[in-house]
Structures are given as C-alpha cells and as structure tokens.
Amino acid sequence: MAQSRSAELTEKLTAVHGRIDRAVAAAGRKDRPELIVITKYFPAADVEHLHGLGLRDVGENKDQEAAAKAAETAHLQDLKWHFVGQLQSNKAKSVARYAHAVHSVDRLKVANALAKAAAAALERGDRTRPLQCLIQVDLRDPAAEDGRGGAAPADVDALAEAIADADALHLAGLMAVAPLDQPARPAFERLQRLSRRLRSIHPQATAVSAGMSQDLEDAIACGATHLRIGRDVLGERPAHR
Ligand SMILES: *Cc1c(COP(=O)(O)O)cnc(C)c1O
C-alpha cells in the first residue's frame, strides 16, 4: 500500500514538474517557480512520501489540520509549511509556531496578530526566522461574490507597510486565487501589475504566489514565483469533511 502510494505520488509529481518546465520554457523565463504542494485532506504519511521525493515546501489552509501535520512531520529535515487559507487573528499564535510563510494576510488585524505572535515565537525559540508574509489580493470583479477572499487592491499599500514595519515579519510579496467563473489569465496579469507596483515601494517583496492545478500555466506566464498545487499531485480530495 505505502509503496504504491509512493509510486503514484512519484508519477504525479513528475508530471507536474514536467508541466512547470514546459510553461517556464514557453514563457521564456530563466527562473523556475517554487512548487508548494497543498496537502489538505491528505495524511502526514503523504507529506513523508513527498519529502522522500525531494519536496520541501508543503501547504495547508486550516490551522487545526496544519498544526497536527506539522507536529507529525517535525522529524523531516528542512520541511517548510506554508499557510494558505483564510486566517482568523485568534489562530495567529498557533500558525506562528510552525509556519515558514503565511500567504493569506488580508487585513491589518491579522497582520498585527501575526506580528505579535511571531515576535513571541522568536523570543521563546519556537522559530528562528521572521515569518514570511504574503498579502492575499482579491482579484474579483467587484460585483462578483465567490468568497475566495483577499484584500482589496486599494488596501495593499497600508497592509504592506504594517508588515514591513514589523520586526518579526518579512514582507515577501502577493498571493491570489484566480476568481471562479472568470478566465485566470487577466486576473493573474492584474496580480503581476500589482506586484510590480508593490516592488517599486518594497523591493524585497518579490514573491508572487499564484497558480493551482488548473491554472499553473497561466500563472507561470504571468510571473508566478510560487505555485500552490494540490489535486494534481495528491489526487482528488474527498468532497467534504
Ligand atoms: C487547496 C488550495 C490550493 C490547491 O488547489 P488545487 O486545485 O488542489 O491544486 C491552492 N491554494 C489554496 C489557497 C488552496 O486552498
């Protein structure tokens, strides 16, 4: 069982790397985006398999599941956890203990809670480096309502300043999820423009986290530096849990 799962993951991971390579070549890019495998709904055993295949970046969208998996995989060398889901400020303390990065900072209250929690975690020695923070931007047509979240583009500057000013946080860049029922490409182009603007103020904020299983090629064409891939590596998730 474990061996066939490992073989399945090897095959799927190889296929995704192939897609990334082709998209990078098609875009004429010299850099290659980082692959983060989103492991939500899948067991810690899968994280172990992926680590064995050389993967070091994994992500989750809920604190409870992430905290449990991070604890179960604490023995894996150099594994980095990326928190990509909507975050309540009362979960900041927990996330600051295990997360290398939070991709979904979408309001000042969350940024401030993370700043405080990361500072405390650094002081306790629960973490050794500042928490990487990406601002999640809402790329929807303002009329749409699909609940995917993120800060309004007009609020990015204030959020960026709050993050950049916090010693325990590092302003890494922007993140977005392509809006449902709209083509991904124009949305990612908009994200790329917002990233350019952000970098003109905060040159260190180079990360562009965009691209999931169905739209990674569009994201790579639009300069994504981090891809968040779930189902195309791990398989279909159970519909509800
Ligand atoms: C689940 C999830 C992903 C991965 O999506 P797939 O379609 O499974 O590749 C990426 N980003 C976020 C924020 C997610 O919640």
Structure overview:
It is a single chain. This protein is α/β, with parallel strands linked by helices. It has a single domain (2-234), classed as Alpha-Beta Barrel (TIM Barrel). Helix content is 44%, strand content 17%. It contains nine helices and eight strands. The chain has helices at residues 2-26, 44-52, 63-72, 92-98, 108-124, 156-165, 184-201, 216-221, 231-234, and strands at residues 34-38, 57-60, 80-83, 99-105, 131-136, 169-175, 207-209, 226-229. Strands 7-6-5-4-3-2-1-8 form an eight-stranded parallel beta sheet. Helix 5 (108-124) packs parallel to helix 6. It is globular. The relative contact order is 0.15. Pyridoxal-5'-phosphate binds next to strand 8 and helix 9.
List keywords for this structure.
241 residues, 9 helices, globular, binds pyridoxal-5'-phosphate
Radius of gyration, in angstroms, nearest whole number: 17 Å
Beta-strand portion reads: 15-25%
Number of domains: 1
- Report the count of strand segments: 8
Shape: globular
